[in-house]
Every structure is written in structure tokens, then in C-alpha cells.
Amino acid sequence: MVEIECLVCGRTIEIPQFIDTDNYDGQVACQECGSLLHVKLEGSKVRKYKIVEKKFRIPTADEMFQIHKEAERRLREEGYVVDKQEEGKD
Ligand SMILES: [Zn+2]
């Protein structure tokens, strides 16, 4: 069983069984982050591999907004954020 480490997320990628690890020169996808790597295998050894396409999942602007709103709401519920009401400090 040949395993390689994803160059993007660092997770171990298991080479699918349909790939002939004795002689393969092509792409594999990381099951974790979905990035595409180009690998060259010879005699069940990795000869070279490199990133073809990075797919680090980055939240979209909308998702970022939702995450922020959600975080703020939770903090509010827990009393960390109190609506500003200045209590006359010097
Ligand atoms: Zn990955």
C-alpha cells in the first residue's frame, strides 16, 4: 500500500487501488482537501509529486459574514458583549 502525504493539507493520501503503483504517472486527489497532486510512482515508490491544484477550502465572503454574526451572537448570549452604554469614565 503506497501512501503519500498531501502537500497542501498534510493528510495522508491513500493511492486508490485502481492505480498501478508500479508504474503510474498521473494525478491523484486528496480525499481530505480535494487538492490535485501529480504523482509519479515506480515500483511502489514515489518518484516525484507536486501540487497541480490547491483546493484549500476558504470560506466565501457570505460564509465569513455568517461565521462572524454567529460568533458575535454567541458572545452576546454569554454576556461577553454588552451593548455599549458608557458609564462615564474619565
Ligand atoms: Zn489535502
What secondary-structure arrangement, pairings included, does this model have?
Elements: E1 3-5, E2 12-14, E3 23-29, E4 36-42, E5 45-53, H1 61-77
Zinc ion (ZN) is lined by residues 6, 8-9, 11, 30, 32-33, 35.
* Tally of individual domains: 1
Low-confidence stretches: none
Give the rounded overall mean pLDDT.
Answer: 85
The number of E-state strands comes to 5
What does this 3D model show about the protein?
The protein has 90 residues and is an alpha+beta fold. The chain has one domain (3-83). It contains one helix and five strands; from the N terminus they run βββββα. It has one helix spanning 61-77; strands spanning 3-5, 12-14, 23-29, 36-42, 45-53. The strands form two sheets. A three-stranded antiparallel sheet has the order 3-4-5, with no helix packed on it. Strands 1-2 form a two-stranded antiparallel sheet. It is rod-shaped. The protein starts with a strand and ends in a 13-residue tail after the last helix. Zinc ion is lined by residues 6, 8-9, 11, 30, 32-33, 35.
